[in-house]
Structures are given as structure tokens and as C-alpha cells.
Amino acid sequence: xxEELRRLTRASDSRKASTVVVRGTLRRAEVxxxxxxxDADDGTTWELLLPAGWVLDAxxxxxxxxxxxxxTDVVTTSMVGPVLRVRSLSxxx
Length: 93
Fold this sequence. Notes:
single chain; mainly beta; CATH 2.40.50.500; 1 helix; 5 strands; globular
């Protein structure tokens, strides 16, 4: 491995995931496994990656606020948008 490539690899490995807080509407994407997505108010469609064992208490169509980390290390087959590793999700009342 060349020194330049080693530097680039170390730089990309050291990036921290950016914390994101997004408001929008939940829905199931009309592709393959119908992943849960968030249509954000800014026009971005986020694919939501929920923690193992998570019980979702909001239904598709609900307005929610999601806090999480942009999962730049994850690739999905649905390719609906960037992936958001969810830490909290709260429905608007």
C-alpha cells in the first residue's frame, strides 16, 4: 500500500458519524423489503436503521422527530437515500 493511500485510509477511518436531528413523515418505501423511511421536511429521504429489538410506536404516515447518526459505513440494497442509525424517535402530537 502506498503512503498516500495509507493516509487516505486513516483519514476516512477517523471520521466520526455526524449527529442528525430530522423532522418528517414516516412511510414504507415501495421497494423490495419495504424499508422504513423518513421523508424529511427538507426533502431528503432517509432510510431508518433501527436498533436490534426496537419496538416502533409510530405508524407510517406519522409526523416524527428522529435523532441519530448518519451511517456512512452502511450500504443497503434499497438505495432510497442516506441511512440514519436511529437513537431516538418521537411522534409529534
